[in-house]
Amino acid sequence: MKKHNQKAWLFVLPVLILVAFNALIPMMTVVNYSVQETFGDNLFFWEGLGWFEKLLRSDRFHDALGRQFLFTGLILIIEIPLGIAIALSMPRKGFWVPVCLVTMALPMLIPWNVVGAMWNIFTLPDIGLLGYFMNHTLGINYDMTQDPLAAWITIITMDVWHWTSLVVLLAYAGLVSIPDAYYQAAKIDGASNWAVFRYIQIPKMKNVLTIAILLRFMDSFNIYTEPFVLTGGGPGNSTTLLSIDLVKIALGQFDLGPAAAMSLIYFAITLLVSWLFYTLMTKDDLN
């Protein structure tokens, strides 16, 4: 019987320890808080699944979750097609290739809190360049601090500006990996541009688009810094996404039990939807 050398696992051990320290231990702390109530001084009282039941019946939780799904849905509907369209229009060879790639990457290099602060100043109705232009030049009543619709348009536009580049770069990587032989065969057959896109480019980009959709879903569904800095969840609670509401409960109200329960439900929803996305987009590969 052949013996296998298991010493290679020693190289993985530091990674496992790091993951345990950075993920599993904090997760266990959250689980501990989610089933208990505390009134300070490290005094804990068993709550069981009470926090989970109250949250799942809470209108506040349902409203915040609905706003979170609405935001993520709009982001995916806009950024995925827009990213593919921009990638298709980018050159494949020549001097402009690195110029376009660097230009596309620039928004992603800006820290999240700086992005929110930039757009906050940019869109203020009196001193912001966009706000002043919309109100005083075009005559459009635009005030994200008072109008919920304007606030939603602003946070959506901000995220599209910030993260469409990720979809562009992934889609472009998929496009340039397609061999020229496919395009030559399509040209010989007289295929239209739409046929080339549908039967060659989209199937060949499927893997990178799966990654793009998963990354954009997880990031947009858990987004916090940019919209919080931009609108603070206002006006009112119109842009209070689930992530913002979670921080308000945990740090603003210091209700650690409900916040821990909400974070676990939040985590479970993210995992479930990500799994559904992945399963649906790869089901043909598994057959």
From TrEMBL:
SUPFAM superfamilies on file: MetI-like
Keywords in alphabetical order: Membrane, Transmembrane, Transmembrane helix, Transport
Protein name: ABC transporter permease
Xref: PROSITE patterns: ABC_TM1
Domain ABC transmembrane type-1: 65-277
Pfam family, one: BPD_transp_1
The family this protein is said to belong to: Belongs to the binding-protein-dependent transport system permease family.
Membrane protein topology class: Multi-pass membrane protein
InterPro entries, sorted: MetI-like, MetI-like_sf, Sugar_ABC_transporter
Subcellular localization: Cell membrane
Source taxon at top rank: Bacteria
Principal subcellular localisation of the protein: membrane
TM segment ranges: 9-35, 69-88, 95-112, 118-138, 150-173, 260-281
Record organism: Amylibacter marinus
